[in-house]
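Support request from a user on the community tier.

User writes: "When I paste my C-alpha cells into the form, the page sometimes reloads and wipes my input. The last time it worked, I copied everything first. Here is what I submitted, just in case something in the input itself triggers the reload:"
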C-alpha cells in the first residue's frame, strides 16, 4: 500500500468508518418517521429540517469521547477533505426551506434523504469502504420506490405524510444498519 492508502485505512479504522455519525443520524431519522405519523406535517417537517441540531452534537460528543479527534490520520489535507464532504449536504438546505415555506412539507424528507445519499458516495474513497457505495444505492432505490408508490394528496402535496414517514424510516434503518456493519464487520 502507498502512504495515502495506509493513511485512509487508518482514518477509517480510527473513525469506525463514520459509524458514530451514521448511528446518531439514523436514530434521528427514525424519531422523525414516528413524528410524521403522530404529529401534524408542519411539526414533523420542522423537526426533520433541524435534525442536525440534535444528531451532530451527539455524534461529535461521541467522537470526542472515543478519542477520534486526537491524532487524525492523513494529515491536514485529508481532514479538510473530510470537512468539505461533511458540509456538502448543507447546500440543499435553501431548497428545503423554500419547500417548507411553500407548504410542500412531504417533499422535504425525500429531498433531504436523497442529498444525504449523494453526500455519502465520496466516503467510499475516504474510508476505502464498499458500505458507502451500497448505502446510497439502497437509499436511491428505496426513495424511488416509496415516491413511485405513494399518491398525491387532495391538497396538492406530492406525497402524503405516511409516505414522508416511510422515507424517514427507510433512511433511519439504512443508516443504522450501515453503522452497525461498519463497527461489526467493516467492508
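"...and here is what came back when it finally went through:"
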Amino acid at each position: 500500500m502507498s502512504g495515502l492508502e495506509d493513511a485512509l485505512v487508518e482514518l477509517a479504522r480510527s473513525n469506525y468508518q463514520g459509524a458514530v455519525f451514521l448511528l446518531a443520524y439514523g436514530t434521528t431519522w427514525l424519531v422523525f418517521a414516528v413524528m410524521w405519523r403522530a404529529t401534524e406535517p408542519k411539526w414533523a417537517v420542522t423537526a426533520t429540517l433541524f435534525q442536525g441540531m440534535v444528531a451532530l452534537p451527539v455524534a461529535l460528543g461521541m467522537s470526542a469521547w472515543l478519542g477520534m479527534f486526537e491524532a487524525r490520520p492523513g494529515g491536514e489535507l485529508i481532514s479538510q477533505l473530510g470537512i468539505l464532504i461533511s458540509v456538502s449536504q448543507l447546500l440543499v438546505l435553501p431548497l428545503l426551506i423554500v419547500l417548507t415555506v411553500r407548504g410542500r412539507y412531504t417533499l422535504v424528507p425525500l429531498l433531504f434523504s436523497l442529498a444525504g445519499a449523494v453526500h455519502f458516495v465520496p466516503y467510499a474513497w475516504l474510508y476505502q469502504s464498499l458500505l458507502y457505495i451500497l448505502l446510497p444505492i439502497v437509499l436511491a432505490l428505496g426513495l424511488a420506490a416509496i415516491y413511485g408508490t405513494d399518491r398525491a394528496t387532495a391538497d396538492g402535496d406530492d406525497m402524503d405524510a405516511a409516505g414522508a414517514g416511510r422515507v424517514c424510516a427507510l433512511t433511519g434503518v439504512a443508516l443504522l444498519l450501515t453503522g452497525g456493519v461498519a463497527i461489526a464487520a467493516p467492508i
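Agent notes: The reload is a front-end session timeout and is unrelated to the input. The chain has a mean pLDDT of 89. The longest helix spans residues 161-184. Escalated to web team.
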